[in-house]
# Entry
Amino acid sequence: MSHPDPYGSEPRGWDRPERPVALPWPEQDLDAGQWSRRPTAGPELYADPHTRPYADPNPYDERGRTVRPDDASTRHGDPERHDEPGRYDDDAGYPTAQLAPIGAEIAPDPEPATEPEPPSGRRTKGRRRASVDRPATQQLGTGRAGRNLPAAIGVGLGLGALIVVPLVVYPLAFLPVLAGAVAIGMWEMARAVRRSGAHPPLVPLIAGGVLTVGLAWFAGPDALSLGLLVTVLGTMIWRLGDGPAGFQRDLTAATLIAVYVPFLAGFAALLAAAPDDGPQRILATLIAVVLSDTGGYAAGVSFGRHPMAPSISPKKSWEGFAGSVTAAALGSALLLWLMFEVAPWWGAVFGVAVSCAAVLGDLAESMIKRDLGVKDMSNLLPGHGGLMDRLDSILFAVPTAYLLLAVLVPVVN
# Structure
């Protein structure tokens, strides 16, 4: 009894003709736009590989390049063939690397389109293109230090006259000038620290600061310390009325302001109130600070290459610091010899110490401004910023000058 052939009546093995194998992915997932049309034997063009007739079981030649099933000359690189754009042959690019056969060359990505240049004579709103014939716009009078130089010079001369004239004509008139500067400086500091969330009480601070300077002028160093203590205690008592929220933060800010402005400025009162030669002492200190600032500015603009403290004050350089020290040392050596008959080398030491203290004071205020996120304490003085931006170096210089002159001048005399 014969059994039916489970494999059917077709030949088996190598003599069975090959059949096209269906693609492993579903037909509906195909995107017909990603396949190029290929000419077939008939006039119809097929975009879907499932529907076009099977032509060649090996669609690649011996070098791995794709060939057209209807043209055998592509196996040998026939130069007479004409390719259509987007073919999947050896010279056409493939839309993605996943669709390209192994060994095929991938067409490079097209160059990104460059933004067309605006026509000459017109520019895009809010932009300004600099060229050889049309340089970038600059502010008039602004130097390399970033300040309006004419305005800065004019304001500086006005402040100098406001200080020098009372000291020469009537020294006691310098006390209201100093008290007013302290009040404005404390107002600027209290206004600046509000950016950090602190709200120090302004009324007791200004009242205590003016009292501290007055006590230093009339009663000496001990009264200066007493004035600082009264200012801090008065601020603490005043702040109790606002409740416990933020008390520690506000009191810390108030203590910083009381020490930084009126206490250090009180040493200027001590210098100016010294018997017989008080005006000369404060003038020698202020001139040394001015020489330090001027020498540092000139040397920094001309030769500044190495930043001194880039994270605090990027414009300060070691060359500028050398210019500050040199100018203050030379000027103070001559100035103290003329005023107090101090030996020139001691005058040079005085100038170097005052210059270093002035630079440290400038860096300290820059550190505070960096921490608070402000560029200037205020815009009260054109070309300078706020008054504290001018007092920063003086506040650190006057205690240093007071101590050195207390030692140097009595020893010589």
About this structure: Residues 27-55, 69-94, 136-145 have pLDDT under 50 and may be disordered. The first strand starts at residue 38 and ends at 39. Residues 275-413 form one domain. Residues 344-372 form the longest helix (29 residues).
